[in-house]
């Protein structure tokens, strides 16, 4: 029994080390994938899971957006109930309707949505005064 508890503690310790690094960790079937945070452009909710968009690859998994958000650093902002974006990858933000915006990125033609409330929050971050 002690051996099982020690093994469980070792696994939990490893998990803590991995999630505190500069990578996001996702499980896909029989794989554990480590994605460097600086490669992530944005993450979106899609079909009961999430899709992580990077410059050269797209990863899908079944983790919730809020669970993934906990693994991210403060270079990421939740811009909408279905999107988290890397602030360092934003090219421009375009108003598309009275209450919403579209985020365009440096390394892809794909876009993400942003609510007006999150736009105000991002503006405060970019122009602290």
Spell out the blueprint of helices and strands.
Elements: H1 2-19, E1 23-28, E2 31-36, E3 40-46, E4 49-54, E5 58-61, H2 65-69, E6 76-80, E7 83-86, E8 90-97, E9 100-105, E10 111-115, H3 116-126
Antiparallel strand pairs: 1-2, 3-4, 3-7, 4-5, 6-7, 8-9, 9-10
Low-pLDDT segments: 12-20
- Average pLDDT, rounded to a whole number, is 84
**CATH H level, superfamily name:** LytTr DNA-binding domain
Mind telling me the C-alpha Rg? 17 Å
Widest sheet: strand order?
5-4-3-7-6
How many helices?
Answer: 3
| Percentage of residues in strands | 35-45%
Secondary structure: number of strands: 10
CATH class: Mainly Beta
Order of helices and strands: HEEEEEHEEEEEH
The name of the CATH topology is OB fold (Dihydrolipoamide Acetyltransferase, E2P)
Total number of distinct structural domains:
1
Percentage of residues in helical conformation: 25-40%
Which short descriptors sum up this protein?
single chain, about 130 residues, alpha+beta, OB fold (Dihydrolipoamide Acetyltransferase, E2P), five-stranded antiparallel sheet, three-stranded antiparallel sheet, about 45% strand
Q: Can you describe this structure?
A:
- The protein has one domain (2-126): OB fold (Dihydrolipoamide Acetyltransferase, E2P) (Beta Barrel).
- Helix content is 26%, strand content 44%.
- The protein contains 3 helices and 10 strands; from the N terminus they run αβββββαβββββα.
- It has helices at residues 2-19, 65-69, 116-126, and strands at residues 23-28, 31-36, 40-46, 49-54, 58-61, 76-80, 83-86, 90-97, 100-105, 111-115.
- The strands form 3 sheets. It has a 5-stranded antiparallel sheet.
- A hairpin with a 5-residue loop joins strand 9 (100-105) and strand 10 (111-115).
- Residues 12-20 have low confidence and may be disordered.
